[in-house]
Design brief:
By secondary structure, the chain is mostly helical. It contains 4 helices and no strands. α1 packs antiparallel against α4 and α2 packs antiparallel against α3. The longest helix has 29 residues. It starts with a helix and ends with a helix. The model has no long low-confidence stretch (mean pLDDT 94).
Length: 120
């Protein structure tokens, strides 16, 4: 399951990078596009780090960073959408949907991990 999730996050990060070409080339689009790439790619990188942790507590911490970055990416995608800064709405909406699914997965995972391991 972890390997499949890692692969899904890698594809998500790749799709985030490819969305950049459809974001307007103005000040707002450039600013949000760069921020989107930072938060949207960090989810895969941080999950990769989580897989290499040595303690449950560190694993949970890294997973919480992934969730934080997913939430930041969601807000960024919504701002881009609401300001009509993307010319490929199909790709944008696909990423928003995938982002929402990933947020639900990590929210549930963290709830289970913290409940099972008495970590707050």
């Amino acid at each position: 399951m972890r390997k499949e999730l890692e692969e899904r996050l890698i594809h998500f990060a790749s799709d985030i990078i490819s969305l950049k070409q459809f974001i307007n080339n103005n000040y707002e689009g450039d600013h949000l596009g760069k921020q989107l790439i930072r938060s949207g790619t960090s989810v895969a990188l941080n999950f990769g780090e989580a897989l290499g942790t040595q303690t449950k507590k560190d694993f949970i911490h890294k997973q919480s960073i992934v969730l934080k970055e997913l939430r930041e990416t969601h807000v960024n995608l919504r701002i881009i959408e609401l300001n009509n800064l993307c010319s490929n709405l199909t790709k944008l909406f696909k990423l928003l949907d995938e982002n929402d699914q990933l947020i639900r997965i990590f929210t549930k995972s963290l709830q289970t991990l913290t409940k099972d391991h008495n970590v707050k």
